[in-house]
Amino acid sequence: MQLDKGTFKKMFPHLAEEMTEEKSREDINSARSGPANGKRVITSKCFDDYNPTVIDFLCRCDNAKQAEEIIDYLEKRGEIDCNYSQNLRTQLKRKGIRSFGTKREEDYYLRESGH
User: Fold this and answer.
1) Which contiguous run of DSSP H or E holds residue 9?
2) In this predicted model, which residue has the larger pLDDT, 31 or 83?
């Protein structure tokens, strides 16, 4: 069934008004990955366009070996320079993995965003 705008406004005046007013708009920022599990995929505006830093990745590590792998990988990709990677390695050896920050567990960013 197709309706022109005028007919739609006559049949559904309140709905037509809501659809045209900016103040009534809501962003849809979640989705279900399937009816069986019903998990929500949530995006938060506070992390929109957020690009994790090397420190963010290091805070997810459980041990120094994982941290070394992260530093090596990012250095090889050119995302961090040689001097910075050396400083990170020095800090890792002298102060340990937790010197970069507390451990960031699974769903850290969802919890921090308030969801």
Assistant:
1) helix 5-11
2) 83
